[in-house]
Amino acid sequence: MSAATINSTNPTISDDNIANALGATAPFVGLPGPVLSLLSEKSERKSYGAGQTVFSLGQYDGGEFLIVLSGSLRVSITDGETGAMIIEEVNEQEIFGLEIAMAEIDQAMFQQIAVNAATECDIVVMDAAEFKSLAGGRPSLMRNIAIYLAQKLAAHRLNIETTQAAPEQRVYAALLKCVARDPVDGLWRIEKMPKHRELADQAGVDEAAAAGAVAALIQEGVAHRDYPGLIVNDMSRLNQLAS
Predict the structure, then answer these.
(1) Where in this chain does the record put each Cyclic nucleotide-binding domain (predicted)?
(2) What DSSP designation does 16 have?
(3) Nearest in space to 22 (alpha carbons), one of 65, 61, 68, 59
(4) What is the pTM for the complete model shown?
(5) Cα 176 to Cα 164: distance, rounded to the nearest angstrom
(6) pLDDT in the model for residue 102
(7) Distances (CA, A) of 66 to 54, 118, 204, 214, 225
(8) Residue numbers in the chain where pLDDT is lower than 50
(9) First CA to last CA across the chain, in angstroms?
(10) CATH of 167-242 given 1.10.10.10, 3.40.50.2300, 1.10.1280.10, 1.10.357.140
């Protein structure tokens, strides 16, 4: 079922630039110009205002996938048994639904998916069947797709392992991503500490757990505050706590 037509009359990316935009989006990076041009010809650009519905719950049927050229989409996936909802954002140069388009997915899954525009956005809509036919005759595109899907699978497995870790461990792992060595004094530091709410979201824990983990880190002497950031006194210990 096709995405709803959008009422935006001022798209931020013109049709002429779709091929270039696709070329900056995995899994299309590095593809020959003719392949990018063909993908552009076979696609349809649509624009959405913030909050508009792309697919209402149960409307998406896997017949197409979406490439975000600008702005972001919000994808909601509801667990049919528990009612729990997972919300993911698909940002600029990211794709929603490619793995669904390339695989045989249980049709019941589609009844739990809804897609909305998180912000004003431009997207490219690609027909799944036509894309698979096109990719089947172009080794460079198929190779890129295989690499892209393999990376998604690896990231998914890593995410499962991370979410099974203790809350504090996940917080420390999130902090590690923010640490960089100061080129002047050689100290390991976080230039600007994320707020506890932001850190909690990154680690998949509640705000209290994030605050407690940071406090414990400072109390143990592994790090100390250097407003608005944090200086890590013992990187080996932080790595140990995060692993």
Answers:
(1) 62-152
(2) G
(3) 68
(4) 0.61
(5) 18
(6) 86
(7) 10, 14, 26, 38, 43
(8) 2, 4-10
(9) 44
(10) 1.10.10.10
